[in-house]
């Protein structure tokens, strides 16, 4: 029975592709429904094709404002977490110091903690300090939970780096600053970039911690959450689709450029 | 650079390195003269790399000083020393192309127009075509040449080589040994070369320091070290030695007469590094290729004045240019004997009774207080 | 030993000669650590202390709260909300197992069978991240709606009869049932399972499969005896990265579930942000944290891995 043999041989591939479709199905729905013209307030049922939402992506009150707030917070959180996290990662890999175990635990715990616990405890702190909830409290929270991920990403990269490269630089007349700028930093760059990208994605998409500490500030995920109660505008799907496409195109483009560069050099 | 210039001398005075309670290098004095090709030879962990790194400035000595010519560089950071290193596995910068790797040192010293120099250097190591490739696109041998070019372009006073050929296969290694030797002769820079490969050290260097457990065991020319080892470690680590326990019987003129088993052996006093008084113990050594084998039936034909031992062939392996015998003898379980395949005696097969004999001038004497097998194990690991 | 030139070990020079001038690097690690660690101490560790203190306070919003070591809050909270705790653990465990079952074949496919499609599939696994997860979770409302093709098919095949009998679904509906919530949790945290699995699978030398085959192992045996054991680090970190956030999640239960599927996250959120009963909310949060940490520690001990990511 050739079909059974074929099935056996490709079982893993079939199962894997099924999982992949499970992962992608919601994105397909989001994209399709960005061309919907719903009857009522909720965009859950297909009615008829329309380009309205794409023509006026900011046609919904407050949505693009929330998008802008989310982007700003994501950018600053990325900058902050990447800077602080990279410094910690270098200290951890390159130096011996006391309380190393405690530092490692402090880095590890935020990743092993349910978001709702961090969100709630941070809120108790802010309430106790009488802090004004809003942009700054969100930013503080985002830097806090992105930090550990940056440390992990950069640490992995710096650890895999041959210490002899820096010795070679020093041997070739590069002082400490030159060694760091010309050798260490360029080689650690992919790890730092990965940490930064992860920070941006985590911050931009965060809902739970933001929900607790936002006060009356509305980020894009908070806007979506609110609209799930009040009514979901089609423009949400437009934004979701656009972000997906931009991400895929960005990655594809960088891969193509990388490929071409390699081919030229070979 | 003239030959009288001593700015390329490396002088280590009482230099030592300890990590906590572990002593990596015991305080040692060493002078490497300008223009020489000097090898630090030893098994891994013997302190040879630490010594090299102290010269490079990558490791700070716990005590002692490093001089380059007349300049004390002990506390100078590596980037201020006129010394460059070819690192183990090369440490080429993966994010820079070959050109920029080679230009790195020049640029750090603020030299603007590097193009001509770099191109000339790449021509010298036959890599002109590869200038714009990244290191990972080159073969091991090419990477090795880039590492050499990257260091040499700075015209260092001393070039340090840390196991530079360790990552290459045997054939390429032989080729690069000759290549490095040629470059050294051409540029006249002092080379200090760290290696665990005794053949490599002997092929390339004019002076070899054999290191063991953080100390220099012996220092000298390759031939000197091989013919007249001063310790059991050197005797065993460089090639193979037969070491026989013996007792000093008497002295006659410049020679010592020793008792081993039932027989007598003669050893020139000058070739004995141990204090020898009548009744004292020494180790008698002789290299396998110095020994001749004669079948017991022909024992009468052996000329007078040669040291002799009797034994029985335990094993014989045909190597091509020579045959290697293992001989059981009353004084030593396993004596190695290498016989050139010129006229093969058909009777010399396992089980045959033989007489081993050699010239007293090829005998050396060592202090019997040492471990007789020092340096042996490492050699076997190397062969494996 | 005439050629051996070894200085006599001088006792005096054993003491450090003149101290070299460059010794200022000792404080560098602390300067590097300071800002980031301070941030984590103030905004991660300190809040935990505040939360612990809040949980043993009594009082009201109007009159303010005081620490009275009122530990009864913990008993009351547990007595009232143990079903939500239990549900959180069950849903998160179910989602974790589903993630492992679904994620493993895909990770395996990317690592060993994808060939030149590897990068494309990787992009497709990661790219959905860039669409806000709330939008994607809302899409499940459409997929699992009562008259959707998926639910229709499940009804026709009488699958829902079975799941309803088990209490996973209600009648011919999927939305607003435990199944919908677990489905959403599985979907949301699947990439956190796939990526660590892929990382540890990718490290496995392909020749090991050939060696196992050469030594008379059938493909399934090869998987059980070679591939799976070697992928354990990925399995451990994948299950942790799935279970921990799933247990604290309240978004899926809120959007895809009903009042009968409320998880502990929903309770904490409501207590904190709507009812404003801070001591109870803090106690619940503290219990959740302790429970998760205890489970994670136990799990890491048993599986012998120290790395989470």
From TrEMBL, chain A:
One of its GO terms (cellular component) is plasma membrane. Residues 67-257 form the ABC transmembrane type-1 domain. It is found in: Cell membrane. GO terms for biological process: transmembrane transport. The chain crosses the membrane at residues 12-35, 73-93, 105-127, 133-154, 180-202, 234-257. InterPro entries: Bact_Polyamine_Transport, MetI-like, MetI-like_sf. Its main location: membrane. Belongs to the binding-protein-dependent transport system permease family. CysTW subfamily. This is ABC transporter permease. Keywords: Cell membrane, Membrane, Transmembrane, Transmembrane helix, Transport. It is a multi-pass membrane protein.
UniProtKB/TrEMBL annotation, chain B:
It catalyses: ATP + H2O + polyamine-[polyamine-binding protein]Side 1 = ADP + phosphate + polyamineSide 2 + [polyamine-binding protein]Side 1. Pfam families: ABC_tran, TOBE_2. The keyword Metal-binding does not apply. Part of the ABC transporter complex PotABCD involved in spermidine/putrescine import. Responsible for energy coupling to the transport system. Coiled coil: none annotated. It is an enzyme of class 7 (translocase). Residues 10-238 form the ABC transporter domain. Its EC number is 7.6.2.11. The complex is composed of two ATP-binding proteins (PotA), two transmembrane proteins (PotB and PotC) and a solute-binding protein (PotD). InterPro entries: AAA+_ATPase (IPR003593), ABC_SmlMolc_Importer (IPR050093), ABC_transporter-like_ATP-bd (IPR003439), ABC_transporter-like_CS (IPR017871), Mo/tungstate-bd_C_term_dom (IPR008995), P-loop_NTPase (IPR027417), PotA-like (IPR005893), PotA_ATP-bd (IPR017879). PANTHER family: SPERMIDINE/PUTRESCINE IMPORT ATP-BINDING PROTEIN POTA, SPERMIDINE_PUTRESCINE IMPORT ATP-BINDING PROTEIN POTA. This is Spermidine/putrescine import ATP-binding protein PotA. One of its GO terms (cellular component) is ATP-binding cassette (ABC) transporter complex. GO terms for molecular function: ABC-type putrescine transporter activity; ATP binding; ATP hydrolysis activity. Keywords: ATP-binding, Cell membrane, Membrane, Nucleotide-binding, Translocase, Transport. Belongs to the ABC transporter superfamily. Spermidine/putrescine importer (TC 3.A.1.11.1) family. It comes from Streptomyces spiralis. Transmembrane segments: none annotated.
Automatic annotation (TrEMBL), chain C:
It is a multi-pass membrane protein. Pfam families: BPD_transp_1 (PF00528). InterPro entries: MetI-like, MetI-like_sf. It comes from the Bacteria. Residues 85-299 form the ABC transmembrane type-1 domain. GO terms for biological process: transmembrane transport. The keyword Membrane applies. It is found in: Cell membrane. The keyword Cell membrane applies. Its main location: membrane. GO terms for cellular component: plasma membrane. This is ABC transporter permease. It comes from Streptomyces spiralis.
């Amino acid at each position: 029975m050739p079909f059974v043999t074929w099935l056996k041989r490709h079982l893993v591939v079939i199962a894997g592709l099924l999982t992949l479709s499970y992962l992608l199905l919601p994105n397909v729905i989001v994209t399709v429904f960005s061309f919907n013209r719903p009857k009522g307030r909720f965009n859950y049922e297909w009615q008829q094709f329309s380009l309205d939402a794409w023509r006026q992506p900011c046609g919904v009150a407050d949505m693009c404002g929330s998008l802008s707030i989310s982007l700003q917070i994501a950018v600053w959180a990325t900058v902050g977490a990447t800077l602080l996290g990279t410094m910690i990662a270098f200290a951890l890999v390159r130096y011996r110091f006391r309380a190393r175990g405690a530092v490692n635990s402090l880095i590890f715990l935020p990743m092993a903690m349910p978001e709702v616990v961090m969100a709630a405890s941070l809120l108790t702190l802010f309430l106790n300090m009488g802090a004004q909830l809003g942009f700054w409290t969100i930013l503080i929270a985002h830097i806090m939970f992105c930090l550990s991920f940056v440390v992990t990403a950069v640490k992995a990269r710096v650890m895999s780096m041959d210490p002899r490269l820096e010795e070679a630089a020093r041997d070739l007349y590069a002082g400490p600053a030159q060694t760091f700028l010309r050798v260490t930093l360029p080689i650690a760059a992919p790890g730092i970039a990965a940490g930064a990208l992860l920070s941006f994605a985590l911050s931009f998409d965060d809902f739970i911690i933001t929900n607790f500490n936002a006060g009356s500030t509305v980020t894009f995920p908070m806007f979506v959450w609110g609209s799930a109660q009040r009514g979901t505008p089609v423009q949400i799907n437009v934004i979701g689709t656009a972000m997906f496409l931009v991400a895929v195109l960005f990655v594809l483009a960088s891969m193509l450029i990388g490929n071409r560069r390699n081919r030229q050099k070979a | 650079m003239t030959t009288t210039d001593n700015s390329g001398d490396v002088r280590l005075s009482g230099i030592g390195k300890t990590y906590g309670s572990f002593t990596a290098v015991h305080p040692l004095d060493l002078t490497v003269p300008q223009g020489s090709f000097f090898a630090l030879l030893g098994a891994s962990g013997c302190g040879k790399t630490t010594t090299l790194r102290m010269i490079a400035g990558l490791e700070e000595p716990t005590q002692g000083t490093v001089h380059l010519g007349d300049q004390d560089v002990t506390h100078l950071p590596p980037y201020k020393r006129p010394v460059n290193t070819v690192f183990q596995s090369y440490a080429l910068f993966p994010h820079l192309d070959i050109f920029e790797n080679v230009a790195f040192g020049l640029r750090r010293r603020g030299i603007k127009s590097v193009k001509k120099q770099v191109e000339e250097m790449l021509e010298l190591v036959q890599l002109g075509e590869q200038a714009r490739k990244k290191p990972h696109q080159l073969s091991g041998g090419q990477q090795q040449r880039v590492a050499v070019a990257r260091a040499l372009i700075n015209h260092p006073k001393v070039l340090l080589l840390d196991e530079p050929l360790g990552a290459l296969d045997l054939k390429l290694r032989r080729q690069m040994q000759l290549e490095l030797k040629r470059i050294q002769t051409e540029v006249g820079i002092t080379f200090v070369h760290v290696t665990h490969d005794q053949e490599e050290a002997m092929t390339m260097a004019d002076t070899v320091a054999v290191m063991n457990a953080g100390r220099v065991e012996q220092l000298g020319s390759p031939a000197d070290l091989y013919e007249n080892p001063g310790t059991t470690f050197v005797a065993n680590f460089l090639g193979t030695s037969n070491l026989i326990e013996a007792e000093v019987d008497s002295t006659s003129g410049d020679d010592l007469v020793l008792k081993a088993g039932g027989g007598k052996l003669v050893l020139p006093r000058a070739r004995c590094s141990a204090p020898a008084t009548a009744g004292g113990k020494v180790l008698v050594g002789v290299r396998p290729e110095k020994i001749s084998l004669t079948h017991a039936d022909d024992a009468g034909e052996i000329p007078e004045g040669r040291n002799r031992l009797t034994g029985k062939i335990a094993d014989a392996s045909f190597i091509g240019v020579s045959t290697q015998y293992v001989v059981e003898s009353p004084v030593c379980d396993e004596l190695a004997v290498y016989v050139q395949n010129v006229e093969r005696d058909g009777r010399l097969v396992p089980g045959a009774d033989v007489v081993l004999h050699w010239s007293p001038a090829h005998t050396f004497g060592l202090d019997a207080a040492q471990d007789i097998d020092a340096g042996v194990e490492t050699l076997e690991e190397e062969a494996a | 030993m005439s050629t051996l030139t070894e200085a006599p070990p001088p006792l005096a020079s054993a003491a450090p000669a003149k101290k070299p001038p460059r010794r200022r690097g000792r404080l560098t690690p602390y300067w590097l650590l300071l800002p980031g660690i301070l941030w984590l101490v103030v905004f991660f560790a300190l809040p935990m202390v505040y939360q612990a203190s809040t949980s043993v306070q009594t009082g009201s919003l109007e009159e303010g709260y005081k620490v009275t070591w009122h530990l009864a809050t913990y008993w009351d909270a547990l007595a009232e909300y143990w079903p939500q705790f239990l549900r959180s653990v069950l849903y998160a465990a179910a989602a974790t197992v589903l993630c492992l079952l679904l994620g493993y074949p895909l990770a395996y496919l990317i690592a060993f069978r994808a060939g030149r499609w590897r990068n494309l599939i990787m992009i497709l696994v990661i790219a959905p991240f860039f669409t806000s997860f709330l939008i994607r979770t809302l899409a499940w409302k459409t997929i699992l709606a009562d008259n959707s093709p998926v639910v229709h098919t499940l009804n026709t095949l009488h699958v829902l009869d079975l799941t309803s009998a088990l209490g996973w679904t209600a009648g011919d509906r999927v939305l607003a049932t435990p199944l919908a919530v677990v489905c959403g949790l599985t979907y949301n945290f699947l990439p956190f399972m796939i990526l660590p699995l892929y990382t540890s699978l990718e490290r496995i030398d392909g020749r090991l499969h050939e060696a196992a085959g050469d030594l008379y192992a059938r493909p399934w045996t090869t998987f059980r005896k070679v591939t799976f054991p070697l992928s354990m680090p990925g399995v451990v970190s994948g299950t942790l990265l799935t279970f921990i956030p799933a247990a604290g999640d309240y978004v899926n239960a809120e959007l895809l579930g009903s009042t009968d599927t409320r998880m502990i996250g929903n309770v904490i959120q409501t207590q904190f942000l709507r009812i404003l009963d801070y001591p109870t909310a803090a106690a619940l949060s503290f219990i959740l944290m302790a429970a998760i940490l205890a489970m994670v520690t136990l799990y890491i001990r048993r599986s012998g891995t120290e790395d989470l990511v």
